[in-house]
Design a protein that fits this description.
This protein is α/β, with parallel strands linked by helices. Helix content is about 45%, strand content about 10%. It starts with 17 loop residues before the first strand and ends with a helix. InterPro entries: Xyl_isomerase-like_sf, Xylose_isom_bac, Xylose_isomerase.
């Protein structure tokens, strides 16, 4: 069987990636991700809902502020539209060979941008027609798309929060076209990432006004999306800074507060990225848990950062401690439903072979598959849940339960404190760390 849909094969010599088990030493095979293996009532594929990020996988060429591109793509062409069509063929070849069920993109990833609005729209919709044909040919689906309203010089002062109304309107044009394309391609979600929705200095910023403009913009976009038949979830992706000094969607808690402040909670949830959470000073699991506790966890950008670097390194996930912690939250909330695990991660600058793109994704998929299995075993064994339940047992009956249920006034609560018999209870932190290790290492 040929795992490509166009006239040309771009990833030559690489066939369908197979599951070979943990004894395999084949770098182009899964050791833990067995798509059809049942974990509980669902298969691994159904639990994990893996997606490939178009921007890092097919656009990131290894360039950084200190050096030019190191990665050459086999679909590169001098004509931007010819390259866009070839890139789509290469992308769907990659999806089908790797076995990711979904993909995600910005408008600027799939079609060349243009200062001229009509040219931008024409380019985008021509490529969207090709993407739809490739989806039909392969069965790969769109998890979400979004507008790149941060790279172009138009947006140096923000998009929806820009102090110039003309820029706000241009951002709306991009989002409108992205929503149109989303509906055409049957997207499950639509994402807003406010890369420049924030400020560099409060000396020239009316923060209250900018936040209100952003809330109005999102509400208008929601209304337009619903009017054209978008039935999915709108997602906000939190990040504290970079490229802005301070972004208005700082972390999960901030984004949820913003969603509720502007009355968007019926339509919006969060798309949590691991590296963004750590940049905000949290763990990945923390931001996931904040969202799950508020019924606001919609989807996940699966990557990891480098603790020694204070910027968004977007590495492929390999830390199984983090994937176990993440999958514990996801499983306990009943899964990601229409969301998924999108690999918002890029090859390192010196990983220049075509196979490295496969190897990077295989490692990330195996890391989450292993995390899924271990997390499911932890939940089924019930040791962690039992310890946590016992720790809060004083609120399950008697006066503690009356307090928790809101059936006690403050004076009564304070009076009880006069004669409270306080006994020290260990949090058993080291025991829990050791117990977690026992699940990971046997």
């Amino acid at each position: 069987m040929e795992y490509f849909v166009g006239d040309k094969e771009y990833f030559k010599g690489i066939g369908k990636i197979q599951f070979e088990g943990k004894g395999s030493d084949n770098p182009l095979a899964f050791r833990y991700y067995d798509a059809d293996k049942k974990i509980g009532t669902k298969t691994m594929a159904e639990h994990l809902r893996f997606a490939t990020a178009y921007w890092h996988s097919f656009c990131a060429n290894g360039a950084d502020p200190f050096g030019s591109a190191t990665i050459t793509f086999p679909f590169a062409d001098k004509d931007p539209m010819t390259e866009a069509f070839a890139k789509a063929d290469a992308a769907f070849e990659f999806f089908t060979k790797l076995g990711t069920q979904y993909y995600c993109f910005h408008d600027a990833d799939v079609a060349p941008m243009s200062d001229d609005a009509k040219t931008y729209e024409k380019n985008y919709h021509k490529v969207a027609d090709v993407l739809l044909a490739r989806q039909k040919a392969t069965g790969v689906k769109l998890l979400w798309n979004t507008a790149n309203a941060f790279s172009h010089p138009f947006y140096m002062n923000g998009a929806a929060t820009n102090p110039d109304f003309a820029v706000v309107s241009r951002a709306a044009l991009q989002v409108k076209n992205c929503l149109d394309v989303n509906v055409q391609l049957g997207g499950s979600n639509y994402v807003f990432w406010g890369g420049r929705e924030g400020y560099m200095s409060l000396l020239n910023t009316d923060m209250k006004r900018e936040r209100e403009h952003l809330g109005r913009f999102l509400a208008m976009a929601r209304d337009y999306g619903r009017s054209i038949g978008f039935k999915g979830t709108f997602l906000i992706e939190p990040k504290p800074m970079e490229p802005s000094k301070h972004q208005y969607d700082y972390d999960a808690q901030t984004a949820i507060a913003f969603i509720r402040e502007f009355g968007l909670e019926a339509d919006f949830k969060c798309n949590i990225e691991a590296n963004h959470a750590t940049l905000a000073g949290h763990t990945f699991a923390h931001d996931l848990q904040v969202c799950a506790d508020n019924h606001m966890l919609g989807s996940v950008d699966a990557n990891q950062g480098d603790a020694q670097n204070g910027w968004d390194t977007d590495e492929f996930p390999s830390n199984v401690y983090e994937t176990v912690s993440a999958m514990l939250v996801i499983l306990r909330q009943g899964g990601l439903k229409d969301g998924g695990l999108n690999f918002d991660a890029k090859r390192r600058r010196n990983s220049t072979d075509l196979e490295d793109l496969f190897i990077a994704h295989i490692g990330g998929m195996d890391s989450f598959a292993l995390g899924l299995e271990i997390a499911n075993r932890i939940i089924e064994d019930g040791k962690f849940d039992s310890l946590v339940k016992n720790r809060y047992a004083s609120f399950d009956a008697g006066n503690g339960n009356l307090f928790e249920a809101g059936k006690m006034d403050f004076a009564t609560l304070a009076e009880m404190g006069r004669n409270a018999q306080i006994v020290q209870h260990s949090g058993k932190q080291e025991y829990l760390n050791n117990l977690l290790n026992s699940y990971l290492f046997g």
